[in-house]
Amino acid sequence: MTDKKMAEALIFSKPESLTDVPTHYCPGCSHGVAHRLIAETIDEMGMRENTVGVAPVGCSVFMYNYFNIDFVEAAHGRAPAMATGFKRVNPDMNVFTYQGDGDLASIGAAEILHAAGRGEMITVIFINNAIYGMTGGQMAPTTLPGQKTTSSPLGRDIEAHGFPLKMCEILSQLDGSAYIVRRSLHDAANIRKAKKAVRQAFEVQRQGLGFSMVELLSNCPTNWRMTAQESLGWIEEHMIPVFPLGDFKVHPAIVESKKG
Fold first, then answer.
1. Dihedral (Cα; 37, 233, 238, 213), 10-degree rounding
2. What count of other Cβ atoms lies within 10 Å of the Cβ of residue 2?
3. Taking the CB of residue 241, how many other CB atoms lie within 10 A of it?
């Protein structure tokens, strides 16, 4: 009896928008997942030659090494301002920022607020892991009540430190915002939903509907002092009750297109 050769089919490959370079991220961190979702979406939408990313200061400060697209580096918190300038002089380009909670909600709070208020035609990918990752695990604007960090070793005290900032809820109130949603990266089902949201945000920009932001709840095993698996469970158990997932603002044109 002759051996039968099984035909092989390629079912998995690296997105063209990602370079073949090992990243510097800690094991178990969700940055790699977020990068892949963005890269896959850019490839699927055929925008690789027409996209510019803005890298901030933070854990993702070297992300331009990992994407096979044009990238620029912004000062800490200033990615929306740089993206605004680039988009205004290159209105046909797909421009996005990729920002952590310290970068976006702390030093860059004014930048993101006014970019959304002006309705800038840019897309923001907001990685919320409730802590400062690169600089040693300090309390961030999104740190949960009672959460221990290196600068709040007894836990975040609401009376002393205030409440976590909920950026989706804040930005959704601005007239310039067209698409503001929150998703999570803690399991496969939610990762699929996150990718759909990233694609929709880019589509909003392509249609010129206004400012768009996708917040992604992410983990930080190193600074949370957890294993990767424990940290994913912590997102579901502790982060989502404080930062509920969902659509906070969707432009009417998007709703109508979905109905059609």
1. 0
2. 4
3. 9
**Helix residue ranges, H only, 178-239:** 188-206, 221-224, 228-234
Is residue 191 situated within a structural domain? yes
Give the tokens for residue 219. Answer: 């983990």
The 10s digit of each residue's pLDDT in 221-258 is 999 999 999 999 999 999 999 999 999 999 999 876 66
Q: Does the predicted TM-score (pTM) go above 0.85?
A: yes
The CATH number of the domain holding residue 115 is 3.40.50.970
CA distance 127 to 130: 9
Average pLDDT of every residue of the chain: 93
What pLDDT score was predicted for residue 7? 67
Domain count, the chain: 1
DSSP annotation string for 99-138? EEHHIIIIITHHHHHHHHHHT-S-EEEEEE-SS-TTTTS-
In a domain, 67, yes or no: yes
Q: What is the pLDDT of residue 6?
A: 59
